[in-house]
Design brief:
Elements: H1 2-42, H2 51-61, H3 67-75, H4 84-92, H5 102-112, H6 118-134, H7 136-145, H8 151-168, H9 173-187, H10 193-216
Helix pairs in contact: 3-5, 4-6, 6-8, 7-10, 8-10, 9-10
Amino acid sequence: KLTVIIAISFFACQKQTDKSAQQTKADLAQVESVAAKTESQKSPIFHSDSPLGTELKNALDDPSTDKYFVEVFNKVRIVKHPDDDKMLSVTDSLFSKDPSKDFFYFIVFTKSLNGADGFYSEAAGVKGTEFLTTKTESFADYFNIGPKLDDTDMRNWASSIVGEIQIEREGEEAMAINELESQLRKNIKYSRKEYSLVIEKFIGYIKKVQKERITSH
């Protein structure tokens, strides 16, 4: 009888141990799931394994990346700074000599167009126009496959370019826009078909913005 009691106690303990082990595994699995979800939410833009997505992630993870640029990226708009030169460095970065961060700087500049006004808006128009006309393929490539870019960003670019045209070619806006269209098409004439589609879409935004400004006056 004592033997039976001992045997029952042994199996009961064994069953409890197995149950505890299973619960421990379940708890660990839940922790790992939460951790994975947290990490995913922490950097939702990096699900893409595209080269540009990787480049963007590396730039943000790099401790040497200017914290002001990261702030503009995170707030998705230009951030006022007591040092005007610091703000203008965002426009200058479009022509950075660091190829590992080219796309990051393009994103930061693009997002800085949100809320841009005054001296910064004018500087952005100048640098943006220069970039668009001298690095047309890069512009088209970024808007073709780059993460974190959408139609609002393209429209902001168009507004910035039209604003610059109105300053530099006042009274000749229509002619200037026609000249810009021709130049952009020429710049990507022998490029990938996808680039042509991006540029044609952008030209459409240029015309739309210009038409809206004429109507509003």
